[in-house]
Amino acid sequence: MDRMKIGNLVEQGITDDWLSSAPIGKLFPNIERIHLEQNLIESKETIRALCLALPKLKAVHLNGNPICSQPSYSDDMNSVLPKSVEVLDGRLTESYGSWALEVANGSETPSVLRLGNADMSELRPEAFKSLNLENLYCIDLRGNPKMTAASWKPLADMVKQANAMLETVWIDDDRFLKDYAEVFSTSAKINNTPLWLCNEGVAAEDPQASELIKQKVIDKLPKAALRYQMAKPDSPDDRITISYVLDELGSYVGHSARANFRLGMIFTSSGTISILWPVKNVLVDDAVTRDYAENITDPEDRMRRLDELGVSD
């Protein structure tokens, strides 16, 4: 019984007098977390006595008690909680360490790092050293108004050193997207906004974003597009150049000067359809390739075209 580390006393009608007189410390001296939500606790001195009785206590949950609605609640807790308490009401205290981070994230190898609503005043890098961040794909930093983007730089460095495939970072204010993009440069998105848009200081939901995306596609199109020529119906000697983009199948096939497939196109009113056929014997697990510049015979022209497409022979 004395090995119990979590005390659950939620909605038990507990008062200050009852908690002060109950021999919790003698019965359960190893408690690390105690849940006292939705009771009748009003005095900070009750919490002070509780912490003294439970020297191993690291997390206190008081949500829903009258004490929580007092204007001085935050200052009162700062004055009575010992430095050993790392979590108050589900939020990290200023003395948080690796224990609190592991409890908050449920693992020493978190995939989502939950630091939201902690109201941190500073980052404590040493608290993160016990965490393995290699599987991390999301970080929630919301609810920390005292922290700036630069404050999180040590954490961003640790994520980078772990080679984590970070997908997104959540922050409170889109006005600081650019600042956070600079710090978390290995992330794919900030607040679900692609990093390149963040560097423009534009959120994904911003009306300006659609125009920037459209322009980026237009800028890339000449390099990605293929071309063919056709004669004008009323003037066979005059030819016009038509540009088009391959469908998913055609776009997936890589380049090789020793290609094993050729690619043809069917043009429809709704787009292009790729047709592939082998020009060499192909074995299982062989890569499917085509020559991106098969009709260009001049070496310099060929090199120029392949450079436009970002490949080489």
Structural features, described:
This protein has 313 residues and is α/β, with parallel strands linked by helices. The chain is 28% helix and 20% strand. The protein contains eleven helices and 16 strands. The protein has a five-stranded mixed β-sheet, with no helix packed on it. A five-stranded mixed β-sheet has the order 6-7-8-9-10. Helix 3 runs parallel beside helix 4 (73-80). The longest helix is centred in the last third of the chain and has 18 residues, at 207-224. The protein is elongated and about 100 Å long. The termini are far apart.
Give me a quick take on this structure.
This protein has 313 residues and is α/β, with parallel strands linked by helices. Helices cover 28% and strands 20% of the residues. It is built from eleven helices and 16 strands.
Name a few traits of the molecule.
313 residues, 5-stranded mixed β-sheet, alpha/beta, elongated, single chain
Strand order, sheet with most strands: 1-2-3-4-5
Low-confidence sequence ranges: none
Overall radius of gyration: 31 Å
Q: What is the count of β-strands? A: 16
**Helix count?**
11
Strand content: 15-25%
Largest sheet: 5 strands, mixed
Give the N-to-C terminal Cα separation.
72 Å
What percent of the residues sit in helical stretches (DSSP H or I)? 25-40%
Order of helices and strands: EHHEHEHEEHEEHEHEEHHEEHEEEEH
